[in-house]
Amino acid sequence: MRKESEYTWTEIEAATNCFSIENKLGQGGYGPVYKGVLPDGQEIAVKKLSETSTQGFGEFKNEVILTAKLQHVNLVGILGYCTDKEEHMLIYEYLKNRSLDYYLFDRCSQLTLNWKKQVHIIEGITQGLFYLQEYSRFTIIHRDLRASNVLLDENMKPKISDFGMARAFAKSNLESNTGKIVETFGYVPPEYLEMGIYSTKSNVYSFSVLLLEIMSGKKVSILYATENGKLNLLEYAYELWKDGKNMEFMDPSLDDTDSSCKLKRCLQIALLCVHKNPDDRPSILEVFLMLKNETTDMMIPNKPTVFWKPNDGNQQNDATAQSENFILSNSINNVTLTEVGAR
What we know:
CATH topology of the largest domain: Transferase(Phosphotransferase), domain 1
Strand content: 15-25%
Largest sheet: 6 strands, mixed
Structural class: alpha+beta
Shape: globular
Helix content: 25-40%
Low-confidence stretches: 313-343
Number of strands: 16
Strand order of the largest sheet: 1-5-6-4-3-2
Order of helices and strands: EHEEEHEEHHEEEEEEHEHEEHHHHHE
CATH architecture of the largest domain: Orthogonal Bundle
CATH class of the largest domain: Mainly Alpha
């Protein structure tokens, strides 16, 4: 495998067949992603910065610096980059099974992802997060953990991707600030939205929202009509857990009634991870241990604090989807962040 390095425009243009529409894998906040094949036969994924993207060179540089130095089976590997012709492209290993959101929110694709595979994916994500927080040289906060940023390899092993918004700080620091809040709406913890503070517990909060989406097969942007009014995903999960109706929360396409105890445990873990006070949330290590050891005692979760509501309706329209990535400026004091690398 070729080591991370700088590729030329000519190499990438040839690999992607001139960035043909047939090779386009998708479109994200950064820009379009294309499949490519290098002369040695290695398949790659090329993320190309769009002129209309809200992200820019800073996020490009940040991702190159962080991702190139991170080595873990549950993190996407970066092969290199291209800055030829004033382009900013990132070159990754190609993962044939696309992103997790494709399997969670597409009714046909959901049928290929049973509960056993779901648990495997959940545990893999926690291992990737634990590595970022504990085993890399610096503490790394992803800040954009969501289903579309979890990719799946040929064995459906999850790999966390997209580190453009990630931040790294010294192990001695428990939290940090940002002068600009950029994250996907619904995954944002209260302390980050209100004060611009992020910590390892921010990752825990975002992970819990992702965990609820995995179990339910529903987006966090959906409102649920109940006798208690319209509830967001977190509130709905809590009400069902409190009433002992755990299986009603599970995506019916999984059809795995033998795992009701595991589901109840996952649901309880997710609700513990969305406590408003970060100190009340478990660490990612505690989350992993609770997932693996079904005899470990767990706290009783509090009712989630409502600090946002998605648009009414069961499905997002295009405008809502496009506005999920949002920026709140001038809500907090601007803080200069020092860029650091990771092992």
